[in-house]
Amino acid sequence: MKKISAFLFAMLLMAGVAQAQSIRIDGSTTVLPAMQKIVEAYMKANPGVNITVSGGGSGNGIKAIIDGTTDIAMSSREMKPKEFDAAKEKGRVVKPVEIAMDALAPIVNPANPVTSLTAEQLQGIYAGKIKNWKEVGGDDKEIVVISRDTSSGTYEAWQELIMKDQKVTPAALLQASSGAVLQVVSKNKYAIAYDGYAYVNNTVKALKVNGVQGGEKSVADKSYPVSRPLFIILPESASADAKKFVDFIMDPAKGQKIIAEVGYFPVKK
Amino acid sequence: MAINRKLKDDLIRYFFLVTAMISIIALGLIMVYLFLEGLPLFKTVTVSDFLFGRFWYPTADPGEFGIMPLIVASLAVTLLSSCIAIPLGVMTAVYLAEIAGPKTRSMFKPMVELLAALPSVVIGFFGMVVVAPFLQDNFDLATGLNMFNAALMLAFMSVPTICSVSEDAIYAVPRELKEASLALGATHWETIRRVVLPASLSGVSTAIILGMSRAIGETMVVLMVAGGAAMVPTSIFSAIRPMPSSIAAEMAEAPFRSDHYHALFAIGVVLFLFTLVFNIIASHIAEKHKQVGAATL
After folding, report:
1. Residue B256 phi, psi dihedral angles, 5° rounding
2. Interface pTM (ipTM) of the complex?
3. S-S: B222 plus which of A109, B31, B199, B245, CB 3.0-4.6 Å?
4. Dihedral, CA atoms, B203, B205, B211, B212, nearest 10 degrees?
């Protein structure tokens, strides 16, 4: 009896899945936390829709949209010309949509007197050329450079926005998570690190970059240099369901509000 | 009846054979997989560039895959933690087995064994929030996340293993050996030093190697407190990046079957070979100093 009912239940489930509208989303792990919240809210508002989200990294997401193995890709960087070409070759037209802005903050211990650094100074510190706080207006103490591990998206963004063609010094202390970075900086007076704005709390101090404090306004008008847009990418031939979902993301009262709650900066108000 | 007994005997034997085969095959497959995923790296990087390269930039373009600093870091931190853990572990074992009364022993032994059950993430957290700031303030260091901190935490983890296994070995030394020694007029201390310790050397060295294997393979602690700088350490207060912490920190986000992914598996292969060498040395020592009877001393 038990077996039969389990079987029936499984059949029902399968029938349910077949009927439900289903959307697959893959890509950037930076966008992932916001996307998960948005999907939760969307599925609550539209019970018939089934959305699966997975984070395989921006590159993998874009590749999946080009190959047609996902419906929507998340990306924390712009698509490269090479990728547009690859899509064209497969006869697909894809369209990136900017859904939010993300900003990285250089952070130090609250006891550190330094409050602002220029982008060049940050690059010098992370390349290992500036070794003492004295050189940038702080105490005569060695700078303890803290970085995320090389595989993290945050590291990639820092590399792209601050380091450019320079490499992070091998003497940098690598931390495996955003939480660990905060922990270390809050315990070490002479440490410097960087983290997504969403993670920064009052145990650390976010520095100004080029004299500009990171925030919704300075990120929106692009005067804060360590910020980047976050995208979703979908094919022009996307289903009506997918398009409806994108409208939900861009709705200032719905998706954009969730983006702000998660700690990114919305693009529509 | 006789056939029946033989059949039963055979069945039990085959049952154990199959169980043993399953675990050996599983281990073998893991090993094969490790090599299959690690070796493709050497299509792009030469073995000597990999082993002796000094820079680890796996995500740069083109990537650099030199793990020399990682190997040195692993060996250095294991050595340093052994210097702390071996004397502590073995001396505690001698105390528990030879000097402490039965009541103290029955109380302390389970306590030491319980220490071994502490999750490594808890020890790592302790090192991060308590020991690191302490070292930083008292030794005037730039950072408390360094080799010394990691070695302390690793020693903390391997002492229970070393102590518990050596204690069993020391406790198992035949009573007549000690009695004979004491009867010849040797003091308690002389007996421990000249009779008990040599007689239990095989077990004690197994204990030491087990503890060291734990230290070299331990991931969580080094990930949290070793600092993570991929540089060859210059002092015991240098921040280091041992092999397991690189694998743990980067595996989750390394694109599947990319060079970076293969490089992490190749580090796994190196780590595996190190542990293998440790174990071969251990079994060699254990074999050489095997205590067969009172006569071999």
Report:
1. -55, 130
2. 0.76
3. B245
4. -160
By the 10 Å C-beta count (0-12 exposed, 13-18 middle, 19+ buried), B295 is classed as exposed
Q: Which residue has the higher pLDDT, B254 or A138?
A: A138
Per-residue pLDDT, B23: 96
Residue type, B73: A
8-state DSSP, A53: E
Show the low-confidence residues of chain A (pLDDT under 70). 1-20
Chain centroid to CA A182: how far?
17
Residue A174 to residue B57, Cβ atoms within 8 A: no
Contacts of B232 in chain A (CB under 8 A): none
A74-89 residues labelled b (16+ CB within 10 A) or e (exposed): bbbbebeeebeebbee
Amino acid letter, B144: G
- Residue A168: both structure tokens together: 């992070």
Residue of B nearest to A55 (CA): B253
Provide the β-strand partners of residue B64. B57
Helix axes B68-94, B147-171, angle to 10 degrees: 40
Report how far residue A143's alpha carbon sits from residue A134's, in angstroms, rounded to the nearest whole number: 9
Which of B228, B241, B261 is CA-nearest to residue B63?
B261
Record: contact B59-A155, CB cut-off 8 A: yes
Give B11's pLDDT tier (boundaries 50, 70, 90). Answer: very high
What is d(CA B29, CA B23) in angstroms, rounded to the nearest whole number? 10
Looking at the partner chain, which of B132, B144, B249 has a beta carbon nearest the beta carbon of A149? B249
Kind of pairing between the strands at A227-235 and A72-75: antiparallel
Whole-angstrom distance, CA of residue B226 vs CA of residue B216: 13
Say which residue the tokens 């959307």 belong to.
A23
β-pairing, A208-209 vs A116-117, is parallel
Q: What is the pLDDT of residues B255-287, one digit of tens each?
A: 777 888 899 999 999 999 998 898 888 888 878
Give the residue, B1 or B209, on which the prediction is more confident: B209
B62 to chain A, any CB pair closer than 8 A? The answer is no
Amino acid at B211: G
Place of tokens 């039990």: B12
Q: Which amino acid is at A39?
A: V
Q: Of B20, B18, B15, B12, which is closest to residue B4 (Cα–Cα)?
A: B12
pLDDT recorded at residue B62: 81
* pLDDT tens per residue, range A51-63: 999 887 788 888 8
**Nearest CB neighbour to A173, from listed B57, B239, B254:** B239
Provide the CA B293 distance to its chain's centre, in angstroms.
30
What distance, in Å, lies between the first and last C-alpha atoms of chain B?
Answer: 48
Q: Which residues of B249-278 are buried (b: 16+ CB within 10 A; e: fewer)?
A: bbeebbeeeebbbbbbbbbbbbbbebbeeb
User: pTM score, two decimals?
Assistant: 0.78
Predicted pLDDT of residue A16? 46
B128 exposure class (CB count in 10 Å sphere: 0-12, 13-18, 19+): buried
Nearest of A185, A195, A210 to residue A111 by alpha carbon:
A185
Token pair of A141 as six digits:
């103490």
